[in-house]
Design a protein that fits this description.
Blueprint lengths: L1 H16 L22 E15 L6 E14 L6 E7 L11 E9 L2 E4 L5 E3 L3 H8 L24 H30 L1
Parallel strand pairs: 3-5
Antiparallel strand pairs: 1-2, 1-4, 2-3, 4-5, 4-6
Amino acid sequence: MRLILLILMLSISLTTIFPIQSQALSCVELEGPAIDHFDTAIVGTVLNVKNDIKGFTGLKETKKYVLIDVEKSWKTEVNSQLIFEADFTWAYNFEKGKKYIIYLNEEKGNYFNSPCSPVVLVESNNDYEQLIGEGQKPKKEVYLGYKMLFKHDKDLDFELVILIIAFSLILIWKWNSKRVKSSKKVD
C-alpha cells in the first residue's frame, strides 16, 4: 500500500513539475495581397538560425531566431541585417545560405514571423519583384552576428545548479578545514 501511495505521489509531483505541452495550429487563408496583413516584408539571405531556450525552471519555451542579410524591404525601411523570432514548433524550416521572401510583424523594435505568414523561397529576383513590386534598399549597414552568439540550443539550468552546488561544497570544505585547524591550535 505504501509503495502504491509513493508511486502515486511521485507521478503527481512529476507531472506538476514537468507538465506535458501540446499545441494546435489553424491558419486562416489571407484575403488580398499578403503584404496588407503584415507590418513589413523582406527579401534576403539567411546567415544563421539558432534555437534559444527561455525560462529558468519549470515551464520552458524554445524560440527560433533567424539572422538575415536584407536585400530589400517593403512597407518599412529596415537595416542591412535583421534578427527575427520564429515559432519553434510551427515555423518555416529556414536554411543557411538560401534567399527568402518573409512577411514579419514588428512590436517594440522586435520582429516576429507568424507560423501562418507566408514564406517563399526565392530562385531569382523576378520572383519577388513580380509578387510585391520594387522594394526599398536597407537604410543602414549593420552587423548583428555577435547577437547570435548569446543564443543557446542547450538548456544550461542543470549545469548552473551543479556549478553552484560544487562551489558551495568547496566553500564549506575550506571553511570546515580552517575551523578544524584553528581548533587544533587552541588545544
